Predict the structure.
Amino acid sequence: MLSTERILAAAVEILDAEGLEALTMRRLGLQLGVAAMSLYRHFPNRDALLGGVVNRLFAEAVSAYAPDATWPEALTGFGLAYRRTLLAHPHAVRLLATHPVNVDLGLELLTGLLSRFEAAGIAAHDALTAVQSVGVYVLGHTLAQVGTPPEHHDDAALAFYDHWFDSGLIAMVTGFERQLV
Amino acid sequence: MLSTERILAAAVEILDAEGLEALTMRRLGLQLGVAAMSLYRHFPNRDALLGGVVNRLFAEAVSAYAPDATWPEALTGFGLAYRRTLLAHPHAVRLLATHPVNVDLGLELLTGLLSRFEAAGIAAHDALTAVQSVGVYVLGHTLAQVGTPPEHHDDAALAFYDHWFDSGLIAMVTGFERQLV
DNA sequence: CGTGTAAGCTTACAAGGTACGCAAACGCCG
DNA sequence: CGGCGTTTGCGTACCTTGTAAGCTTACACG
């Protein structure tokens, strides 16, 4: 029996194993032992399906961490966890870039993190700005990393990206620390 | 007479006027008064053509500004100019996200900016980290902005994105200022 | 048992990228 | 000036992919 969940799970499998180009309706149907057109009972079109994959992965990223006590620590932890999840699904990063995460879902998933700002007396509006800034930094950075040609995928490159990521993240978080009282 | 330059210029035109989905080989040929297959004399395939568009737009962005004296000012100016160019070609932003800019071209275009770090005695390696961090922040932020559904494209939204962008950029630059002695 | 509804299937079509080989135009040489 | 190789563009055709439309099967419920 087909279900939204089963379809999305299969989609992520294909994505991870074979990349974005391989994620066609027919290929996905094959994976599920079903005809391509059957998928349209659950999604109006391919784009909606990809959107579902995006929301699923973002949820995975955010659920994978528990926010620390202070907001700078929690914010840093969010950035690290988000990056870790994205790098675990390298072929999905381009999807995240082109299919924005559902805003309401994003806010709901991030309440834990946002509450750390609230506890420090920071306006919700400023908290959101900081969290979103880190979010787009992580996405942009990961895009750059997964976009490098495969011949550069050695240990030195890994170390370079790790260091670069940390520097930028630290700069941003400390910058916000000064900015937000 | 067809040339790489003419093709890329026409591609950007179509992109700006009709969006990324409209940029097909046939449509581009039409624009140039030429058959689709003729384009393959200048590009091995569509992806290479899109890569050309990306490099062209990045060059436009970087050429559009002269770096200020101190590196924090120059870095901020770069971020602002890069964002301005991306927002001037909203349909191209997804391209920039999926087709990384040629590294050597990027470095060459950014020598002016990097020299400001050098003048302050900052290691080339650290300078690159800072510049790239701002670059991916700008791209990520612009992706988020152009990805918002059109019904939210009012003045309030514009102000929101502007403020968010500035906050994140300032945080990052001041963060690097503290980090880089 | 009859029937209505949900789940999946079959077929078919329209785009779109691009391989392949031909044709025309141009430059260079004798 | 004539021949010819090379460059530039074209026509045709093929394959892949998303998806519209309508059919079929099977199960629930009276």
In short: Residues 24-26, 36-37, 40, 45-46 of chain B lie near DNA strand C (CB under 10 Å from a C1'). The interface with chain A takes residues 94, 97-100, 126, 129-130, 132-133, 135-141, 143-144, 147-148, 163-164, 167-168, 170-176, 178-179 of chain B (CB under 8 Å).
